[in-house]
Here is the input.
Amino acid sequence: MATLLSFHAHPDDESIGCGGTLARAAAEGHRVVLVVATRGELGEAVPGVLAEGEPLWRRRVAETEAAARVLGVHRVEFLGYRDSGMAGDPANTHPRAFAAAPVDEAAERLAVLLREESAEVLTVYDDHGGYGHPDHVQVHRVGLRAAELAGTARVYQQTVNRDRMRKGRKAFAARAAAGAEVPGRAGGETRDDEAFGKPEAEITAAVDVREYTGQKRRALRAHASQIGERSVFLAMPDEVFRFAFGTEWYVRAGQGPGITETDLLAGLPAG
Here is the structure.
């Protein structure tokens, strides 16, 4: 049995970015460990979800544990840092903010877990954190350094396939222009695509998780304080969800050009 350790910035990031990969790894007999840098204290709660006086962080920790059970994760750990908020937020400089933590200090915390678990595989984010969030960028920096400290050789940087995202938008826009019924959106509201992920030419691993999109969606639903039933993740029909989230994308240094891997744990023994 091999061990996959997946490192994330906030509760719900694991389900959005790697939920299918984690569920697939667990189903195939591997050990799956989830590590979250912060407790998501600065998230915006869906109205009416929290009880009176209930702190958001406590709910988000419970939601992470619930989502982990859905995905088959064996262990959940929090590194103990504070949510840094979006870029430019004064919270970026809070003494306990993850984005402001010394990289080597935070990396050693993660390396302790990598060593303890003898993890063969680590997932982090790409070099701009998928979309530039300070905590996500820090996951990239800290994760790569922790892998060096722990001697974890196989590191995958989770990303968004920018070209596929554009392709999906164009396809559904064409259907709408032709008068066809368009079942939801392929990727949410229109945004600056250049701010998201990587072009496909820079991506080296594509993991087919279509079999696990049901689990992924249930895990997303577990994060009810952040992901409401009207959110793009839950409101889109199954067809659109499978297109948008049925493949999870990664970059691994030394691989490519092009997609050269379809399984993050290929060649490692399963239980």
The CA atoms of residues 6 and 106 lie 15 Å apart.
